[in-house]
Amino acid sequence: MLELNIPSKEHDEAKQGQALVLEASKNNNGRKLYIESYGCAMNFSDSEIVASILADDGFVTTADFTEADIVFINTCSIRENAEVRVRNRLKQFSASKAKNPGMIVGVLGCMAERLKAKFLEEEKLVDVVVGPDAYRDLPNLINKVDDGNKAVNVLLSREETYADINPVRLNSNGISAFISIMRGCDNMCSFCVVPFTRGRERSRDAHSVVKEAQDLFAAGYREVTLLGQNVDSYKWASEDGTEKVNFAQLLEMVALVSPDLRVRFSTSHPKDITDEVLTTIAKYENICNYIHLPVQSGNSRVLEIMNRTYDRHWYMERVEAIRRIIPECAISTDIITGFCSETEEEHQDTLSMMDFVKYEFAYMFSYSERPGTPAAKKFKDDIPEDVKQRRLEEVIAKQQIHSHYRAQQRIGKIEKVLIEGFSKKSKNDYCGRSDQNFMVIFPVGDAYKPGDYVNVLVEKTTTATLIGKVVQ
Ligand code: 5AD
Ligand code: SF4
Questions:
Q1: What is the pLDDT of residues 95-130, one digit of tens each?
Q2: What is the enclosing helix (H) or strand (E) of 443?
Q3: How confident is the model at residue 29 (pLDDT cuts 50, 70, 90)?
Q4: Spacing, Cα 367 to ligand 1 middle (Å)
Q5: Exposed (0-12), middle (13-18) or buried (19+): which is 158, by Cβ within 10 Å?
Q6: Which atom of ligand 1 is nearest to 192's Cα?
Q7: Closest residue CA from atom 1 of ligand 2
Q8: Which of 68, 178, 292, 338 has its CA 20 to 30 Å from the CA of residue 210?
């Protein structure tokens, strides 16, 4: 599953939603749009598609929802607390709506899809509910609301990939961008709501992906992250069937856009990641040595009831293949604690898996039952909340040790860093990511600027951030 590979944004319903600001509109209709996104990278990427569709319809955007004519919130359903956060945010919008009754409030994305028209009953303030495959219908839905109706479109599609839509890059640093390469998910992991909210898996035209990467590179971008819930099952064929592209081949096509364009991707599924993908990563210097390979649990029985379709042994073998083919590769994971019926011994297997891999980064969650999922239908959510939390704390504590260990291993090494901008803490420092996706901090200098690659000698670390200086 996605919730992206950019650690700061992935799994991000834990973070504040972000307002997205549209810079230009071709045929300004005088109305202002405000969009806020929660959840995974795919949601942030989808908001860029929404912005593009509405820019064509004449909307300009604002970063201030109190002055907006339309307020959209692009939502996440992955865990219950993500939904709670969105509902709280909607309450905050209601004060603005009270002052400006003409204001349209829309709910987009996974929560819209999950709750459908029920949203309109539950949240009286909401005027429009739009699922992830229905964004082309937005101008029409807004017209309906303008005519005094409520509007809903939550139809899922087997074909929609928005391949022809040129996303408006929102709140962008002008250096790294997401490219959505597929939509939906066919995996049916038993805990996961995504197959229900984002529908069937479909892959986007490979040439439109490459064209988007080329356009981004020409516009000065230097890093793209290819997004899909399960990128390893990317499979596209031309209409006449003469051309077929798998994920390894797509990676290669994007890597060939320019050696100066870094390529990242997320998310890889342990059952599908092939040696062909690994050798392609190893072959191209600009395909980053970083794989987000969610394990979810280290125990084979739990993996089985999660319907992950691999076991502990298989996962370890894939990690060994990564180590063999790409020795310098960083690996990150997602872990769920306290899944239905998980015993203490099974939880210990997750901890021992962490010891085996020593992940660079991890996104760790306690199990949150989602209505309608196979797990909610078949299994009892029987691990008490305090046990789930205690197991989660154990997992987090172990990960801190491993992240620190992996960061420390980089001390004395020279990292190629793509400069993203000033560090959060000081205008005297730049920050950027290393090939292995570590955040690297180093002093600002005259000879380099955001968008440049520099070699940074790592001198020290915090838990997971590298600190150093630029060297030749
Ligand atoms: N409860 C807790 N975590 C979940 N995830 C997905 N569904 C749930 C759930 N019901 C986690 C998985 C997935 C990540 C994006 O979110 O670890 O990989
Ligand atoms: Fe990821 Fe599994 Fe959910 Fe698909 S069903 S999005 S693979 S966790």
A1: 888 888 889 999 999 999 999 999 998 888 899 999
A2: strand 439-443
A3: confident
A4: 7
A5: exposed
A6: 7
A7: 1
A8: 292
Strand, coil or helix: 76: coil
DSSP 82-144: HHHHHHHHHHHHHHHHHH-TT-EEEEEEHHHHHHTTHHHHH-TT--EEE-TT-GGGHHHHHHH
DSSP state of 463: S
**pLDDT cut 70: percent of the chain above it:** 94
Please give the distance, rounded to the nearest whole angstrom, from the Cα atom of residue 5 to the centre of ligand 2: 14
Query: Would the pLDDT of 12 be above 90?
Result: no
315 CB near ligand 1 (under 6 Å): no
User: What is the distance between the alpha carbons of residues 461 and 402, in angstroms, rounded to a whole number?
Assistant: 13
Structure tokens of 184? 């939906």
Q: Is the pLDDT of residue 297 over 70?
A: yes
Quote the CA–CA distance of 255 and 449 in Å, as a whole number.
23
The mean per-residue pLDDT over the stretch 182-191 comes to: 97
Ligand 2 contact via 295 beta carbon (within 6 Å): no
Q: Domains plus CATH for the chain? A: 2-153 (3.40.50.12160), 176-408 (3.80.30.20), 414-471 (2.40.50.140)
Q: Answer yes or no: are the C-beta atoms of 201 and 210 closer than 8 Å.
A: no
Whether the pLDDT of residue 10 is over 80: the answer is no
Nearest-CA residue for atom 6 of ligand 2: 1
Could you tell me the distance, in angstroms and rounded to a whole number, from the CA of residue 191 to the centre of ligand 2?
8
Q: What angle do CA 11, 16, 17 make, to 5 degrees?
A: 85
Q: How buried is 106 (Cβ within 10 angstroms: 0-12 exposed, 13-18 middle, 19+ buried)?
A: buried
> 20 C-alpha to center of ligand 2: Å?
26
Cβ neighbourhood burial of 125 (10 Å; 0-12, 13-18, 19+): middle
Query: Which residue's CA is the closest to the ligand 2 atom numbered 8?
Result: 1
DSSP 352-372: HHHHHH--SEEEEEE----TT
Q: Residue 7: what pLDDT?
A: 33
Strand partners, 33: 61, 70
Spatial separation of the C-alpha atoms in residues 243 and 19, rounded to whole Å: 40
What is the per-residue pLDDT for 26?
A: 57
Share of the chain above pLDDT 90, in %: 86
What value does the CA radius of gyration of the chain take, rounded to a whole number of Å?
22
Tokens encoding 306? 């999660």
